[in-house]
Amino acid sequence: MPQLLTKTPENAGTGPLTSAAPAGPFRSFHAPHTLLGFTFTLRQVVFGLVLLYCLSPWSSPPVALALGLVLAQTTGNPFGAQTKKATAKLLQFSVIGLGFGMNAHAAVQAGREGLLFTVASICGTLVLGYFAGRWLKLNRSVTHLISCGTAICGGSAIAAVAPVLRAKDEEISVALGTVFVLNALALFAFPPIGHALAMTQNQFGLWCAIAIHDTSSVVGAAAAYGDQALQVATTVKLARALWIIPVALGTALAFKQKGVKVKLPYFILGFIVAMLLNTWLPALQPVGAVLVRLAKIGLTVTLFFIGAGLSAGVLRAVGARPYVLGVLLWGVVSTVSLYVILHAV
């Protein structure tokens, strides 16, 4: 958890306290104040208070993401480097914790139902992304990163494929920015659509796993719909994430890259172990219930951190064409998978 206060005089004049304050109504939030030997800014205090709310039982993943987005556009995130580093780890531990609320038998059934959808949607998205990227005259690396993020599991897929591509930092940032913005939209849009179409828990969970990019938003949207939707969505999404490995290897061949290493999503193994323990060791279920509650809190905080990182500067830096590609791919995957699920599941 980021520190709210910074001790002086050792740290005075360093870190976020010395960043240039922006013009406008929130300029005063960047000014340093001293109390009892500690130096802090009002935006640090605001960040800390919102974080405490996200840790409370009154918050939820959509609310946390919305609060993060509001914070990013107003006072800004005073702990950007720390939250960026914590987001990936916190999400991984949260996913493992959710495994203690899953049943292995139900997960296998959900995985079987989602396998055909997974294979078809991944292959179709990568092919469509290739041709759409050429049509939009986008950089080949950016096109492939956005396509992989849409096809598999958002930021995790981009992080795994980027080293294989030897992608530049700005290319990775563009892809991540595109995916995270669409993730935020999906988290708010999918539950109302599911209710309007009277989707079953199983249908909605499957749709989330296929049509929403990042695991955090998949779990957040499914949790807002119901426990069964959450179980189906998490299981299918994590099974889908395993496709990072063959897609990364295929990327190395397609882009003729040699001597690269593929980053394996080891946290998925932790999820499977937690699920097996919950299924075969009933005595652990009371402890598992606590871990599941902590995991859901961790997910809520993760989405707050993601929202707090989507500043206006990040949104502008992406540019129009990557968003067009991202929206096009997302729109096709969402509508086609929704049609198939409503008529076949």
Automatic annotation (TrEMBL):
<comment type="similarity">
    <text>Belongs to the UPF0324 family.</text>
</comment>
<feature type="transmembrane region" description="Helical">
    <location>
        <begin position="145"/>
        <end position="166"/>
    </location>
</feature>
<feature type="transmembrane region" description="Helical">
    <location>
        <begin position="238"/>
        <end position="255"/>
    </location>
</feature>
<keyword id="KW-1003">Cell membrane</keyword>
<feature type="transmembrane region" description="Helical">
    <location>
        <begin position="45"/>
        <end position="70"/>
    </location>
</feature>
<feature type="transmembrane region" description="Helical">
    <location>
        <begin position="204"/>
        <end position="226"/>
    </location>
</feature>
<feature type="transmembrane region" description="Helical">
    <location>
        <begin position="322"/>
        <end position="342"/>
    </location>
</feature>
<feature type="transmembrane region" description="Helical">
    <location>
        <begin position="264"/>
        <end position="283"/>
    </location>
</feature>
<keyword id="KW-0472">Membrane</keyword>
<dbReference type="Pfam" id="PF03601">
    <property type="entry name" value="Cons_hypoth698"/>
</dbReference>
<dbReference type="InterPro" id="IPR018383">
    <property type="entry name" value="UPF0324_pro"/>
</dbReference>
<keyword id="KW-0812">Transmembrane</keyword>
<keyword id="KW-1133">Transmembrane helix</keyword>
<feature type="transmembrane region" description="Helical">
    <location>
        <begin position="114"/>
        <end position="133"/>
    </location>
</feature>
<feature type="transmembrane region" description="Helical">
    <location>
        <begin position="295"/>
        <end position="315"/>
    </location>
</feature>
<feature type="transmembrane region" description="Helical">
    <location>
        <begin position="172"/>
        <end position="192"/>
    </location>
</feature>
<protein>
    <submittedName>
        <fullName>Sulfate exporter family transporter</fullName>
    </submittedName>
</protein>
<feature type="transmembrane region" description="Helical">
    <location>
        <begin position="90"/>
        <end position="108"/>
    </location>
</feature>
